[in-house]
User: What shape does this take?
Amino acid sequence: MQTSDSKDVEREIVVPGDLLDSSGLTPGPGTFNEGKNIYAAQLGIKSVRQNVVGVVPLSGQYVPDRGDMVVGKIVDVSSSNWLVDINSPYPAPLHVNEVPWRVEFGETKRFMTVGDVVLLKVIDVDETRKIHISMKEDGLRKLTGGMILDISPSKVPRLIGKSGSMIQMLKNSTGCRIYVGQNGRIWIDGDLDNIVRAIKAVKLIEEEAHSVGLTEKVKKLLGDVPEMESETDGRNTYTQ
Assistant: This one.
């Protein structure tokens, strides 16, 4: 398990126009290319993953992407779907065909209603930003009890940590069940004192996400931290 912040010094903040790559990587979000060169199109942190180079914005609203795990809130209910707030400017309807129950037409409120919190997956986002979400995969569910906390979506990778190390440290230290959505929405459940500890740690990580030595600061805040093994892969960021 890696607990140091040696990688922090390698976190490269870029501004629009900075050269990101000229070796043949694929341009990703937050970039533009001219010939073989790929440049930053926005202020953020350079990210290279699976031969794709992109820029993670330092702040801003969540932009859904295929495969994202998100924590959503039901904001409206119709006869055949639920409208879900996923902390995005784009609406996200959840159709009855995408839940793990058999729902007859007009019976949607029997299963979920306004205010319910759900763990979802973004299945697809088309060119018009129409979002297709689902609850049908293993682990996706309605979340009961607990508390909701929102952070900047751009800080989610730091909250998760390398190979899931940071979020696993929070979970093991507080004993809380924690789900972190790629959309910056976090669900925390446990006894009240430990929920408060977890929230304080999350806020510290959000505020100092780009600082060196963050892991040690979080350890100091949490007190004794037991040894742990990661249960997340950094992309599908939910854990309990």
Summary: Residues 19 and 39 are 5 Å apart (CA to CA).
